[in-house]
Amino acid sequence: MVNRRANVGGVPRNRRTGEDNRDIEAAYSDSYRRIVAVIRQIPRGKVMTYGQVAEDANLGRAARLVGYALHALWRTVPWQRVLGMRGRGIAKVSIKDPIFGTEQRLRLEKEGVRFSTSGGVDLSEFGFRLPKKRVKR
DNA sequence: CACGTGACCCCGA
DNA sequence: CTCGGGGCCACGT
Questions:
Q1: Which helix or strand (DSSP H or E) is residue A72 part of?
Q2: Who's near A98: CB < 8 A, 6+ residues apart?
Q3: Is residue A136 scored above 70 in pLDDT?
Q4: What is the mean pLDDT of residues A46-54?
Q5: Residue A117: Cβ within 10 Å count
Q6: For chain A, first and last CA: distance in Å?
Q7: Residue A21 φ/ψ, nearest 5 degrees
Q8: Residue A8's pLDDT band (cuts 50, 70, 90)
Q9: Across the beta sheet with A82-85, what order do the strands follow?
Q10: Could you read off the pLDDT of A57-102 as tens digits, one per residue?
Q11: Res. A10: pLDDT tops 50
Q12: How far is the CA of A51 from the C1' of C8 (A)?
């Protein structure tokens, strides 16, 4: 399993305890909490891209922030269901660490997500979006 | 306060 | 396909 700490420069551990990440949400910003809230709603067998998570969390185009946050909060969410956008409705594993990257793909395949020969996931088939809030009208 | 950095993304050349 | 360039934003230094 993935026990290995994936600490990359700058990404802190839980600010309060310095270890356990289970309640890490409370220690972080509101943006992080919203990101977590969105990711937790992705059902089994479906995926979202970093950019889509940012949008649905009302964070505009802060896709980068989602990646940053997820790296720190992965213990608290189904992290495997977030992929990187690779143009034209195709998403791919975006994790640099090969151990985690492989783990992500295996977990998704176990949920029924299919990867093409080139490693892409068809978002028209496996993509998930939160139902739109009907705010305007 | 100012940078640098990062599991990102879009666009144009 | 590869490169830049600009945008996003939290966090560490």
A1: helix A63-73
A2: none
A3: no
A4: 96
A5: 5
A6: 48
A7: -100, 0
A8: very low
A9: A48-49, A82-85, A90-92, A121-122
A10: 999 999 999 999 998 888 889 999 999 999 889 999 999 888 999 9
A11: no
A12: 10
Closest nucleotide over all strands to A10 (CA to C1'):
C12
User: Which residues 21-40 of A interface with strand B at a CB distance below 7 A?
Assistant: none
Q: Which two tokens stand for residue A87?
A: 């143009």
Residue type, A36: V
Proximity of residue A85 CB to strand B below 7 A: yes
pLDDT value at residue A15: 40
**Residue carrying structure tokens 């956008």:** A85
**Residue A95 CB in 7 A reach of strand B:** yes
Give distance CA A24 / C1' C6 (Å): 32
At A50, is the pLDDT very low, low, confident or very high (cuts 50, 70, 90)?
A: very high
Q: Which residue is nearest to nucleotide C13 (CA to C1')?
A: A10
Q: Give the closest residue to C11 (Cα–C1′).
A: A10
pTM of the model: 0.82
Identify each DSSP E strand in A41-136 by its residue range. 48-49, 82-85, 90-92, 121-122
